[in-house]
Design goal:
86% helix; 541 residues; single chain; mainly alpha; 20 helices
Length: 541
């Protein structure tokens, strides 16, 4: 891999990490500004926003960049430019149509999500916040195509910078707008939440402005490439180009949509299921905690899997095309083991520290309910991490069609089980339905990998037993340490919660790292990197 490509991949990954970090930590001040009812209203638009962003960031840029890169390598620069010019118009039109569709259908969606009977929020309020987020649809598809154009020319910096700027502008407008409405204008809470939701549109404009600046800066360079065009493929119809892009984008879109679609099922069914058993008075609070607040926290380890899966495809594809089964098996072994090695203890650690972690992000209101949901929900993030990686492997071995199949089966299971499970076990029923849906999707992917890659899971299973054992020891030690600290510290205080998280997480990391090095597992998984880390940190064992 060239240094230029390595640098570009690093820049793009760094931009994504910064963007996700901003998207996580804004919830602390936002919760303080708008309070419980404000976040309840906000989360109704959150899933719609996540779906839009997933489509824009997961599928279109990658597919467009792959298309442009392919024809640039052939010296057919005008083909990519034709796609870019026509694509901008199509994306703008489709964005406007999508905006109009969501804006006009907002009342219908609001009625599906909630009824006016005995709920804190009203159909009118939910309609308003959905309409506020719909404006982002005008800009985001248009912007995603431009990002794909830059990436297709191996220019990762514009996409990375625009992603970060988009998130910064969004967060600043979200916090500033809601605070301005409430504390300066003395406005209504609904107006403040609508302003914070509208921030998605403002942020997209910020990201688009950055891309336009880079375009003006680089336009002459890209135009000069057209002078070297071979001109032998000028008769390719636009319909063929779009067909190629859609086929390429579909697997990435489905992988990116997996988690938001599961959340969408909860958004559409949770309140009505809780109302059926007479719990509408706490339904919105429970949904907000489950589908927004705790989900924001447990998605942290999943970010690793997403980045990991994107880097995985070229290695898997290379080994598969060469029919090098040894290299393919080694890559798959490494992938699954490293993923489990990192995500398993991280998710279990969040579960152990559920109460202080929840307190750090949110207020003491509903602390017990939030902590209990987080404790049960955190381990499910292991499945959230496994799915995108197994889907990426299917992409690597050219069996991406099964990604769509596995996701549809999982979603249908979630949809069919959600209401009866919620009626029986309330919030935990929704978590169980998600667990079953994801598990089935992952099992289908693993079976396909086993058949088409002729891959044996024996090594992964043996190492997984070891990783589970180490995580179990860490779990016992951290639980005992946490119980001890609760004798002196209280989660009612944010500072005490922070102290508890630092101490318990530190103890857990020390024990886990010690076991990994003493057993030689760290060397087996990370090779020379484990040696370098040990030397730099001066680890004595």
């Amino acid at each position: 891999m060239s240094q230029k490509l390595l640098k570009g991949t690093f820049i793009l990954t760094l931009g994504t990490i910064i963007s996700k970090a901003l998207g996580l930590f804004y919830v602390i001040p936002f919760n303080m500004i708008v309070g419980k009812q404000g976040t309840i209203l906000y989360q109704y638009s959150y899933v719609a926003y996540t779906i839009v962003i997933s489509i824009a960031t997961a599928g279109i840029p990658l597919a467009v960049s792959k298309f442009i890169s392919k024809y640039n390598a052939m010296g057919e620069y005008k083909v990519g430019r034709r796609l870019f010019k026509s694509g901008l118009l199509i994306m703008l039109c489709s964005g406007i149509m999508s905006f109009l569709a969501l804006y006009l259908l907002a009342p219908v969606l609001a009625h599906m999500i909630i009824s006016d009977k005995d709920f804190t929020s009203t159909v009118s309020q939910v309609t308003t916040v959905i309409r506020a987020v719909s404006f982002a649809l005008i800009v985001v598809p248009f912007m995603s195509l431009i990002r794909g154009f830059f990436q297709g020319h191996d220019a990762m910096t514009p996409s990375a910078v625009s992603t970060v700027v988009e998130q910064i502008v969004r967060v600043v407008f979200l916090l500033g707008g809601s605070a301005f409405v409430l504390y300066v204008l003395n406005g209504k809470l609904l107006t403040a939440v609508s302003a914070s939701v509208f921030a998605a549109f403002v942020g997209a404009l910020g990201g688009l402005a950055v891309l336009f600046w880079y375009w003006q800066k680089s336009k002459n360079t890209y135009d000069s490439l057209l002078l070297d065009d071979k001109g032998s493929l000028t008769d390719i119809p636009l319909s063929s180009m779009y067909k190629e892009i859609l086929i390429s984008a579909a697997p990435f879109v489905f992988v990116g949509l997996a988690n938001p679609l599961f959340q969408l099922v909860d958004t559409l069914t949770f309140n009505r299921a809780m109302s059926n058993i007479g719990l509408q008075s706490i339904s919105e609070t429970a949904l907000n905690i489950f589908n927004y607040q705790t989900h924001k926290i447990i998605i942290i380890p999943v970010s690793l899997a997403t980045g990991f899966s994107m880097a995985l495809i070229p290695m898997i594809t290379r080994a598969f095309v060469k029919e090098d089964r040894t290299e393919l098996s080694a890559n798959l072994n490494q992938t699954f083991q490293v993923l489990l090695f990192i995500t398993l203890p991280a998710c279990i650690g969040i579960s152990v520290l559920a109460e202080p972690v929840y307190r750090l992000f949110y207020q003491t209101e509903d602390l017990l309910m939030g902590a209990e949901v987080l404790r049960v929900y955190a381990p499910v993030a292991i499945l959230f991490s496994l799915y995108p990686v197994t889907a990426a492997i299917l992409q690597g071995i050219n069996e991406q069609r099964f990604t769509v199949l596995s996701l549809l089966v999982g979603i249908l299971l979630k949809l069919s089980l959600n209401t009866p499970f919620i009626e029986k076990w309330e919030t935990y029923g929704a978590i169980l339905a998600t667990t079953i849906g994801y598990t089935v999707s992952i099992v289908i992917n693993l079976i396909i990998i086993r058949i088409y890659a002729k891959y044996s899971f024996k090594m992964v299973f043996r190492r997984s037993v070891l990783i589970v054992g180490f995580t179990g020891i860490m779990y016992i030690a951290t639980t005992l340490m946490y119980k001890l600290l609760t004798l002196f510290l209280s989660t009612e205080s944010a500072f005490s919660s922070l102290v508890m998280v630092i101490i318990v997480a530190g103890v857990g990391m020390l024990i886990y790292v010690y076991l990994a090095y003493r057993s030689k597992l760290a060397y087996l998984l990370f090779g020379d990197q484990a040696v370098k880390i040990k030397r730099k940190l001066r680890i004595p064992f």
